[in-house]
Amino acid sequence: MSSPKPKISQEQLQIEYERFQDTIKSINEKITELKNDYDEHKIVVATLKGVPADRKCFRMISGVIVKKTTREVIPVLETKIESMVGALDTLSKELVKTHQEFEKWKKNTGVKIVSTA
């Protein structure tokens, strides 16, 4: 014999639904921001590779502009790009996991989403 599901109030369901939606929105915003940063870094690296290695360039680090050569800056930017790829992968997995949890929650609670658009 299966035990009956505990009765959850409309308000509790609404709060939980909004929590899921806020989490999904937040992750999507982080992914978008990181993709934009990634694209910008790729453009900068491609541009710097087209100039002499001893050419001076300026890089902002924590609000301070630092003078370096392209030879010094390119490896740092490439490392940063690699870390962005890893972060994007992690965020994408987190987004999939959150969507799966949301679908499981909808199934378990019997909530049906009605579009108002």
Automatic annotation (TrEMBL):
The protein's name in its UniProt record: Prefoldin beta-like protein
Coiled coil (residue ranges): 10-44
Pfam families named among the record's database cross-references: Prefoldin_2
Keywords associated with the record: Chaperone, Coiled coil
One term of GO molecular function: unfolded protein binding
A biological process from GO: protein folding
Entry annotated with the keyword Protein transport: no
Keyword match Coiled coil: yes
Gene Ontology CC entries for this record: cytoplasm; prefoldin complex
Matching InterPro entries: PFD2, PFD_beta-like, Prefoldin
Family named by the database record: Belongs to the prefoldin subunit beta family.
